Amino acid sequence: MENWEKLSKKPWAEVRQMQDRKLRAFIVNQIYPYSPHYRRIFQELKLDPYKFKGVQDLVHLPFTYKEDIAPTDAEPAKHRDFIIRPDEEVSEKYGHMAKLSPYGGKQVVDEKIYDYKPAHIHFTTGRTAKPTPFVYTLRDLETIREAGRRLLDVFALSEKDILVNAFPYAPHLAFWQAFFAADSMGVASLHSGGGKVMGTQNLMSAVEMMKATVISFIPGYAYYFLRQAAEQKRDYSSVQKVLFGGERVPPGLKDKIIALLQEMGAKNPQVLATYACTESRLAWGECPSHDSYGYHTYPDTEIIEMIDPATGEHVAEGEEGEIVYTALDWRGSCLLRYRTGDVAKGGILYTPCPNCGRTVPRITANLQRKSEFKEFDLTKVKGTLVNLNNFFPLMMGHPQVVEWQVEVCKRNNDPFDLDEINLYIAPAAGVNIEELKSDLRQKVIRDTEVAPNQIIFLPAEQVLARVGMETELKEKRIVDNRPQK
Amino acid sequence: MENFAKLCRMTPEQIKQFQAQQMQDFFAGEVAVRHPFYRDSWRETGVPRSAADLQKQPFTVKSDLLSQPDNLESYRRYVLEVPEQSVSSKGGGLFGLFKGKSAGEIVPKKYATNQLLFSAGRTGKITPYVYSVADIENLGDTGLRMMEILGITRDDTIVNAMSYAPNLSFWQVYYGGLKLGSTVLQSGGGRILGTEKILTAMENMEASTLFTTPGYAEFLLQTAVHFNLKFPNLNKLIVGYGPVPLAQVKRLEVLLRMVGSPDGQVKRVYFLNEAKSAWAECSPGSGYHFYQDHAFLELDAVPGVEGRGELILTNLNALGSCVVRFRTGDLAESITYEPCPVCQRSLPRVLGEIERLDDYKNLGGEQGRTVNLSSLFSVLAAEPNLLLWQAVLHGEPAQLRIDAAFLDKNQAAELSGSLQAKLQAALGVTLTIKPTSYKELADRLGFEKYPIEQRIVAHSSTGS
């Protein structure tokens, strides 16, 4: 990997040249010879890998979609075709000879094992397809460690910070990226595994015990956790930064979190978000500021394209587009032109960050997930498209909503009847329920263009039980309870 | 840490000399200088210089390590202080000319805190335990030693199904696997990934090695047998972080055969959070091999407990949290410095089944007697017709009931009778047996809910 301090100061034109050079080498030396899937693609399309000049030639390759990788009952090992692996037949035939070679044969074997042998595995969460494994080699673990160090550098953390990692434990990226980041920078940490593992009370005490300066959370759990801590009048004066990952961060939620931290004695706390997907195998973060200047990417480990989701054509700098990810110089599971399904409203920016001055490409922070546009039969005219993303900023940021859940179901539980949308709301103390109901109804219509059928007010504990706080890996904010036709 | 091969060749006399030297160096060079509690206490009594001196020291107990409610940072009394930076990091003085700007930083990184692990134990009170950078490096080294003793190599594919918690069992396997360079799935155990996904992963990865707790191992393999899943590659099942009597090792070996692993071996590991390393057996019953450069163990007699003593731990190279003469609450038969008769390594070993002192309970009130509930594990593991069990202490004075799920439900009444007679003879108290469904017991034991199953409970939600 490049030197981060130098890389983040290089002019964009130079960075692009570096990407061209690295991509050429990566395709010729790793992807074409050792990736079964992409080798097949090159052969089917009669593409000559040696004529690949750089990033501009990526358009000759087809996109890779989640369904290309995710295991199915018919093909449970599809993901293996995306792993960079030197030909197994050759390894078996000549491997023992290499070991016996008096000219550093054992060292060569050790290097190959470092480069190519899977050592660590993450899984996708499996919400839209079966959980898909992504493997890291020992070399990749060095890459994710360095990415973690860069992430904390962007967040302006130092080895004097103390981290409580409250991401739920799972073989998923969020927990492990925080672990590798802290380990790499030398930040003293508690990798708690989240409330489900340690219990929220124990975790609250741990923040006080350690005088943590940084806490990393899934946004929904953060609000629940800090609300409880504030009710118990905990001393969180040491906390300076809250890092979010795993989900989008609605702007209103940041303000709620900051207010809670200030109530517990924190001075000028900041809430910072990360963006990642399992397929990208590392996370990017935004630099500290009240306004967001986007997620700072690492141009020596990936190429980010921004495309029109409908046509697949590139969009201009700063224009809304779907994020397409290409791995650069990784080993293990490597994807080219992967359609993330995430739409960046402000696209990608190549200008230096006005806040921190780093010159790396930035993905703008307002992200939406394409898969959360769902088709509903809300009227006799079937097939209304509803953007469920819009519930998150509305509910998370609403000052009078403490907890919430959206339920999609069928009228009379009849699979052939109309769809209904119900809101379950735990209101803040002392709120006028009728006024809140009317306010929510208006805002839901404004933001989603549909009217909720029912707004049901419940105590916070009941809504928390519905969303599975502390029992689920990710809380269930939007549930689709429609029976199958 | 010392060269492992060298440690494995020492004679018992050399081990004792080595440990005496290690104690002198570590106590005088680190503990007496940087340990807030022992530094103060040794000011009056002097720094212990030998095993004989050590025996005059008072014990440290678990409650000493807990944070006080009015001072949550009080756990730091048992954490070595990080040395002050006495030379400015900006300059570097004369050394700076030769070694660059970092020469001015004389604070050795090894003392800095890397991670806090917590032991919740059975008390439910979390005890923070600080691992310094050096401790984490040692965790990798001891992990590699553990793998070597267990016969695991880089070619093995490992599923780490130790329940995730910020404690030793998960992280020892993680760092050992990483150092070894094996392919490892860090599943987090049943309560994180769920049994179905773990079984699928084991099948897809063609896993050769599984690390988990003994109770969960049994549940996982029983589930595999039920669904007729086969794991022909699974040749090492490593269990620990819970009592594993030899009878249960045999039981797990039978289950391995049933899932298609004819040569599968079951081996045991002893995880002791405060030791900052796990100790493995090279073969079941050979004794837990520990490391003379890392820990010093004593065995202290406990009134009312025959043939066993409580293990007393002294850390010999810990730079974060550090304890001297710590009462572990774990019982063992003896400690030997003789070479292992199976693997020939001359590492010191803890012999006998590890049992918990907490499991010695008084049943039947004043006229009753103290019963070792740990012995239930070995007696019940030898019952081929028993699938699952839970011991329930109920009533006042406490009485014992065993809720049992039998292989053949139709024979439950008959099997209950014979089991009751057998247990009463073994424990010397009257007890009852309640046939219970497998599903209910699996739920109550909480294989997918708790870090370790609820084998002995004080009250039952199902009543008595």
Describe the model.
The complex is a heterodimer of chains A (485) and B (464). Chain A is built from 15 helices and 21 strands. By secondary structure, chain A is an alpha/beta fold. In chain A, helix 7 crosses helix 8. The longest helix of chain A is centred in the N-terminal third of the chain and has 23 residues. Chain A starts with a helix and ends in a 5-residue tail after the last strand. Chain B is of the alpha/beta class and 464 residues long. Chain B has two domains: 328 residues, 3-Layer(aba) Sandwich (Rossmann fold); 98 residues, 2-Layer Sandwich (GMP Synthetase, Chain A, domain 3), CATH 3.30.300.30. Chain B is built from 15 helices and 21 strands. In chain B, a hairpin with a 4-residue loop joins strand 18 and strand 19. Chain B is globular. The C terminus of chain B is likely disordered. At the A-B interface, strand 1, strand 4, helix 9 and helix 10 of A face strand 1, strand 4, helix 9 and helix 10 of B.
Brief sketch in words of this structure:
Chain A is an alpha/beta fold and 485 residues long. In chain A, 34% of the residues lie in helices and 21% in strands. Chain A has a domain at 372-480: GMP Synthetase, Chain A, domain 3, CATH 3.30.300.
Show the helix and strand layout:
The complex is a heterodimer of chains A (about 475) and B (about 475).
Chain A (H helix, E strand, L loop, with lengths): L3 H4 L4 H23 L1 H9 L21 H4 L18 H13 L4 H12 L1 E6 L9 E5 H17 L7 E4 L7 H13 L2 E4 L3 H4 L1 H11 L3 E4 L1 H13 L9 E4 L6 H13 L6 E7 L6 E4 L8 E2 L5 E6 L13 E7 L10 E7 L3 E2 L12 E2 L3 E3 L3 E4 L7 E4 L3 H7 L3 E10 L8 E9 L5 H16 L5 E4 L2 H8 L10 E3 L5
Parallel strand pairs in A: 3-4, 3-5, 5-6, 6-7, 18-21, 19-20
Antiparallel strand pairs in A: 1-2, 7-8, 8-9, 9-14, 10-11, 11-12, 12-15, 13-14, 16-17, 18-19
Helix pairs in contact in A: 2-3, 5-6, 7-8, 11-12, 12-13
Chain B lengths: L3 H4 L4 H23 L1 H10 L5 H4 L7 H4 L27 H7 L13 E7 L7 E6 H18 L6 E4 L7 H13 L2 E4 L3 H4 L1 H11 L3 E4 L1 H13 L9 E5 L5 H13 L6 E8 L4 E4 L7 E2 L5 E7 L7 E7 L10 E7 L1 E3 L12 E3 L3 E2 L3 E4 L5 E4 L2 H7 L4 E9 L4 E8 L5 H16 L3 E5 L2 H8 L10 E2 L7
Parallel strand pairs in B: 3-4, 3-5, 5-6, 6-7, 18-21, 19-20
Antiparallel strand pairs in B: 1-2, 7-8, 9-14, 10-11, 11-12, 12-15, 13-14, 16-17, 18-19
Helix pairs in contact in B: 2-3, 7-8, 11-12, 12-13
